What we know:
Blueprint: H1 2-16, H2 22-48, H3 56-94, H4 96-107, E1 118-120, H5 133-143, H6 165-174, E2 182-184, H7 191-205, H8 218-231, E3 236-238
Parallel strand pairs: 1-2, 2-3
Helix pairs in contact: 2-3, 7-8
Amino acid sequence: MLEELRRSLPRFKMYEEMDKSSALANSLSDMYTEIIIFCAKTITFFRNNPNLGKSRNAWSEFNSEFLRTIANLREHSRQIDEEVDLIRLKREAKSAETLEALKQLRIAKSNDDGALPCHVIPYGLNPRFYERELELANLHEVLDPQEELPGLKVMAIHGLGGVGKTQLALNYANTSLEPFDVILWVPAETQIKMTQALSSFAEKIGLNLPKEDEPDDDAQAAQKVKDWFNALKASFLVV
């Protein structure tokens, strides 16, 4: 936990100097309060239990409190990072470059179907990827767009961290450019990143933007992408 705090606290200090929203200020306050309370409990514990060898029950309770604190700090850290991402996103939306880009897009907007084919994949094929023939075969069989079935086809890749789930998905996506007219890779670490990715995709395929007197934001662009997929007649893959 101390190592995590050593890496995170300088970043949080920088966030304090930003033009904070009330949500960010509250998240920072909750984080610091959690740290202060745990430090106070730690000092009290070691003062009351100088001989830990004879205080196993007390140590077990303290360890449980320690684990709860770590979980709380990680949750607070996630909330802080999301709030900072949101603030940065709003700043970017107000920049002159973004406004000019939106103006040009309105002028040069294309039809609602956009330009196909369109493949948005973050990385290419990994030359060191191997020994996943069975899993790839299952993906191709289940998600084959040539096989006419009612409804959407869905498949989940699960497993422990580091076993290669992302690499498997990347390999399948990169080797499926021909059968799918549209491939969209959406980062889903946070809701903000997901919304930004959908907004960027809307711009890439040239979805119609609002008129000059209508507001627009990433959430609206994300909804446009969802509606576009619902009406799309071409084959598509969303990861």
